[in-house]
Amino acid sequence: MAEHDHLSKLKDAPIPPPDGEAKRLALAAAMAAFEKGAAETQGSAAPQRLSHASSPTEGKRKMRQTFYFNRALAASIAALMIGAPAAFMLSRNYAPGGGSISNPVGPISPAAEVAVAPRMEAPAAIQPAPAPSASVAGEERAKTAGALGGRRDGLVAPPPPRLAGRDGAAQRLSRSIQPAKPVAVMNAEGVRPPMSVDTNVAPESEFRDRFESKETNPVKLAATDPVSTFSIDVDAASYAFARRALNAGRLPPKDSVRVEEFVNYFPYDYPKPESAQTPFKPTITVTPSPWNAGNRLVHVAIQGYALQSAERPRANLVFLIDVSGSMSPQDRLPLVKNALRMLVDELKPEDTVAVVTYASGSGVALEPTKVADKAKILGAIDALGAGGSTAGAQGIQDAYRLAESNFDRSAVNRVILATDGDFNVGVTDQRELKGLIERKREKGVFLSILGVGQGNYNDALMQALAQNGNGAAVYVDNLNEARKALVEEASSTLFPIAKDVKIQVEWNPARVSEYRLIGYETRALRREDFNNDKVDAGDVGSGHRVTAIYEITQVGAEKKLVDDLRYGKKTPAPVSAQGAESELGFLKLRYKLPKEEASRLITQPIAESPSIESIARASQDVRFSVAVAAFAQLLKGAPYLGDYSYDDVIALAQSAKGDDPFGYRAEFVNLARLAKSARP
């Protein structure tokens, strides 16, 4: 109770008048601090708000550090502002034993600066905002004094103390904070510009690979449309491009998948022809379809004659090499150079090689040189470098001029174009380029394509140029593929055994109700083109083989895709007959020998028997090629496979790997596994 009475007395006690001397000393200390601060640079030494960073993660980290530091600083200042006056009042009114302090405030010493933890170091790439000049700072202080009713001498109250810098010197907290820079300036449409990206790697969404779009071959009725005609195709670029995509975890574009190029990529041990005068031997196998019960597959295998070394003509080659800027990545010009070195090693001493390059313009890097002087040829290849835009058409014209200047009627005269297909300067119209190449083909100079790269690969143009130049289009995605195309299959790539090769199959409506050709959409010909020797078709190189697969529905089958017409002529029921009536169809193959202009004909009936009753009883080559055809159709999204899956493809291919000296079939099985989890 005594303590309560004592507190009541203190509460009711009169407030002592202010001490004039103490007030004077406090004001003097404040003015001294102001004069010292006014002579120093105004502004904030704290780091600016982060406006950009090398990556989103780095930016977030630095912004978070700045945010946490500023919050801790604000909490510390708030604690000082609240705690210091409270402690002062307690020390003024209460003695250590609870007694009152009656003495007036003593002399005030100049304010001592409080040591504060040094501020966080600003990022090296971001500098503090520049301080205003002394004259500008003085004008700003004078304006502020007038606006706030400052002292008569025009001085304003001193700013709060700044934090200590890295050197330990006291810094003072500025009353004006520099405004944060915006993260990104918006454009006129109110949209922030995208972050900068590494220009050496094109984002996947910006890939500009171009492929010709073709609808999958439809099912046709043998009663109304019994004849199927197409040009032979020995290219394999589509498979190599798909392999690159699948190894990167992506499904290839559907338009890039050409079933026949998948099937024809692989070597098969088909029965061989006996002479170069009849350079083809067809072998036909009829087997049940693994994906449509009741349907059958007609497997047409054609093996080309393999030239012996003594039969091989001399080669007059011009390497036309794209050295534009787009060819600089390792999978383009450096890969091409390695591939051409391999090819040179396969040539004979009497063969000749020339090198033409093109970028913004074109030039001759090597005049026609005998392979006997191999060091000179390899030196010219090694000296190639990339840079500039792509004047491809100009380079093609220069290469043809060089080939014609060294033309040898008894030799193979061929231009080999190595490019990513990105023609962007000069004659880029596809029709004009095709016309030029057709005219040169008629003079005996052929064109082959060695394609590389992805992101801007113009497959549609490369295919058109190769087809019109009587050459193959090869896509090289790695050094192993370069070795396959230019070493293991060098003769097939360079030396033709026949040109303008066409296939025509006539189906017997008495035995076949429906049929469809699997693949060859880009090689379709009209029925009358087969006998017209003026119509260009595909060429076949030494030792090459070609596979074509038809799926047929026989007459009387329970399940058909096309119903019989109600009012039309009914399909006849199958009957036992001899001769032509017992055949499923009739195969015709037309070709020209390399130095001839008149075509020759090979024919063979497609017999219903002997017919294999199970796909498991077919040869390894037939089973594997059927598995590859199914795989390509799955990638392309063909609507004719029912429930057949990648697992079914893998099982069929595994059972047919056989002798696989180069590992091509094992690699295929692995690609089928990758396709199961690849992203679109």
Automatic annotation (TrEMBL):
Compositionally biased region (Polar residues): 41-57
Keyword annotations of the record: Membrane, Transmembrane, Transmembrane helix
Transmembrane residue ranges: 68-90
Domain VWFA: 316-494
UniProt feature, compositional bias: Basic and acidic residues: 1-12
Gene3D superfamilies assigned: von Willebrand factor, type A domain
Claim: Transmembrane helix is one of the keywords in the record: yes
Residue span of region Disordered: 1-21, 38-60, 129-175
Annotated CDD domains: vWA_subgroup
Protein origin, superkingdom: Bacteria
PANTHER family: CALCIUM-ACTIVATED CHLORIDE CHANNEL REGULATOR (PTHR10579), ZINC FINGER (C3HC4-TYPE RING FINGER) FAMILY PROTEIN (PTHR10579:SF43)
Protein name as annotated: VWA domain-containing protein
